[in-house]
Every structure is written in structure tokens, then in C-alpha cells.
């Protein structure tokens, strides 16, 4: 018989940034609140090899795996109210930052982790603020695009 949590829902999750204890950033309660997380992807990079005398096809061989950017979206917070926003602001203004690890937890109905991904050595690549539009009554969304080395399933 299947477990009661299968299939899991994708709307109940938590993101934790593991800022170093000696750094200036300390994660706040605001920093686990995200609307969406995407980019937990591996891609296989390939190369093609043409065989002499065989013109009907090319051999495609795997070269290395690569991770896509991690994209986090949430309602906007002032940098003073969010360690993540402050971390990005420091990175883009002063070009000084330390890569951080982060944890993405998929949670069950009792808020316990069903699955956990650890993202290693993330750093801010892009920080976007959604458009302001007087015709729409939407929440202002900030988007963090983070480059990272790899992720592991814990």
C-alpha cells in the first residue's frame, strides 16, 4: 500500500540559508517564506563526434553534468528585514559576498520534511524586482537567481 503522503504536494516547502555563524547575516523568519523555488535541475552537457565514412548520424557523448540556476520568488522585503536581501545587496553593490549552502525541504501536512535537498555554494547571480503597475493590484515579487555548484538529496 502506498504511503499516505504520496504523491506529495509542491506548495508546502521551506528554504533555509545556512549563513556562517561568523558572518554578518543571520537568517530571519522572513527568509524562509518563498512563493516558488525552481532550478533543482541537473543537465548533461554533451559533445558530438562525427565518425569518418558514416554520414547518416553523429555520436552524442556525455561530457559533464551541470546545474541550472536556482530561482527563488517571494513578496518583497526591505534589506534591513531580510538577511537574503542584505546578502544580495552587499554582493551587487560592493561585490563582496561569501557563497552559502541552503536547504530546501518539501514538507508534509504536519510540517515534517518528506524530502530535503542541500544546495552547495550558492551565490547571487541576479536579483529582480517585479514591475510596478497601477492597473493591477498584485504583490510586488522579488526574484533571486542563484548560481550554485551542485545539490544533493539528503
From TrEMBL:
Q: Which InterPro entries match?
A: CHP02241 (IPR011747), Phage_T4_Gp19 (IPR010667)
Organism superkingdom: Bacteria
| NCBIfam families assigned to the protein according to its UniProt record, in alphabetical order | conserved hypothetical phage tail region protein (TIGR02241)
This chain belongs to which protein, by name? Phage tail protein
From what organism does this protein derive?
Chitinophaga nivalis
Taxon lineage: Bacteria, Pseudomonadati, Bacteroidota, Chitinophagia, Chitinophagales
